[in-house]
Amino acid sequence: MVSNAAKALMSPFSSEVEYFCSVVYYDIEKSPKQKEIFSEFQSLLHLPSKSLMRPIRNRFLQILEVCTRLNELMDVLVVHYYYVLDPNEEHKYRKLLNQVLTRYATVEEKTRVERTSHSIPNGNTSQT
């Protein structure tokens, strides 16, 4: 009964939520280098190390846990993905990045975050 209600609740979104969660998961968790960088960003922001959760198709109740974890890691995701933006796009998100860094990091740590980010090639993170 609960599963049917969850399925009905998710139906307006088709599979966009699952797809988004899967893309983020595979982009970071299936690349050892990206996983290491993601973990380092968590450490630099003084956050406990957490992994992303893989959504499992047709497990509608589990998607809530997956989305909750994404929400918990949103600040780390902002930092992680900022540095793979096209340089022409960075200015659009610089204020958001600075808000995240101001919330968690000292000046020295901001510098370390920027240094770490230079090890991420511009473009698709899943290529590493």
UniProtKB/TrEMBL annotation:
The lineage of its organism: Eukaryota, Metazoa, Chordata, Craniata, Vertebrata. This is Uncharacterized protein. It comes from Dallia pectoralis.
